[in-house]
Specification:
- This protein has 6 helices and no strands.
- It has helices at 4-33, 40-75, 83-104, 109-139, 146-182, 186-219.
- The protein has one domain (4-219).
- The longest helix has 37 residues, at 146-182.
- The protein is 86% helix and 0% strand.
- The protein has 222 residues and is mostly helical.
Length: 222
C-alpha cells in the first residue's frame, strides 16, 4: 500500500504547481485586461480567462494549509493531530467551497460578497500563522523545527501579497462595470495602470517566496 504521507507529499506538490503556474497565467493575461487600446468586450474576455486560471491558484493556496499541517504532524514538528486534524480538514473543505462559490458567482454582487468574506478569513489567519511561526522560531514551540516555522512564516507573508492581488482583481470587476455603464474613462484607466504596475512588482516577490517555501520544504537545511 502507498503510505498516506506519500499521498500528502504528492498532493502538496500538485497544490504548489497550480499555485505557481496559476499566478504566472494571471500575470500574463493582465497585460490584455488592462490594455485600453483593446475593445472592452475583448478585455472582459481576457478577464474571464484570468479568473478561470486564478481559481486553481486560489485552491492551491487554501489546500496547502491543511496539507502542510497534516504533514507537519507526521514529521512530529507540530502538535495538532487526531481530532484537530479532522477539524482542520473540515474547515479547509468549507473554505474551498466558499472559494468555488465565489468563482461561480464571479462578476455579480453575490460573488463580490463571497470574495470579501473569503478575504476576512485571511485577516484572521495571517496574524495567527505569522505570530505562531515567529514564536516558534524564538522559543522552539509550538512548532519544534525551525525550517517548518520558517515555511509557515513565509506562507503567511505570501497570503498578504495574495490578498493585495485579490483586491486588484476584484477592482477589475468593479472597473469594467463602470466602463460598460459610462464609456471610456481616462481616470479609471490610469488607476488600472497604476494598480497593475504595482501588482507586477509584487508578483516577482510572490514567485520568489513560493520558490523559497518549496526549497526549505525539500532541503530542511536548518
Amino acid at each position: 500500500m502507498i503510505a498516506s504521507h506519500l499521498v500528502l507529499k504528492w498532493f502538496h506538490i500538485i497544490a504548489m504547481v497550480y499555485w505557481l503556474g496559476g499566478e504566472w497565467g494571471v500575470f500574463q493575461t493582465s497585460y490584455h485586461v488592462t490594455n485600453p487600446r483593446l475593445p472592452l468586450d475583448e478585455r472582459r474576455r481576457h478577464m474571464e480567462t484570468a479568473y478561470r486560471i486564478d481559481i486553481l491558484a486560489r485552491l492551491g493556496i487554501i489546500l496547502l494549509l491543511p496539507i502542510g499541517l497534516h504533514m507537519g504532524h507526521n514529521f512530529g514538528v507540530q502538535p495538532l493531530g487526531g481530532g484537530w486534524l479532522v477539524l482542520i480538514w473540515v474547515l479547509a473543505a468549507a473554505w474551498v467551497a466558499l472559494a468555488l462559490a465565489a468563482f461561480v458567482k464571479r462578476g455579480t454582487d453575490t460573488g463580490l460578497r463571497l470574495t470579501m468574506f473569503d478575504d476576512k478569513i485571511r485577516y484572521v489567519l495571517i496574524p495567527v500563522l505569522a505570530g505562531t511561526a515567529t514564536l516558534s522560531l524564538v522559543t522552539g514551540h509550538p512548532f519544534t523545527a525551525k525550517w517548518y516555522a520558517a515555511k509557515v512564516l513565509i506562507y503567511s507573508g505570501l497570503l498578504v501579497i495574495g490578498l493585495i492581488l485579490r483586491f486588484v482583481m476584484r477592482h477589475w470587476t468593479e472597473t469594467f462595470r463602470k466602463l460598460a455603464a459610462g464609456g471610456p474613462d481616462a481616470g479609471l484607466e490610469a488607476q488600472l495602470t497604476r494598480e497593475i504596475r504595482m501588482s507586477r512588482r509584487l508578483a516577482y516577490l510572490y514567485w520568489f517566496g513560493i520558490g523559497t517555501v518549496a526549497f526549505i520544504g525539500v532541503t530542511k537545511f536548518f
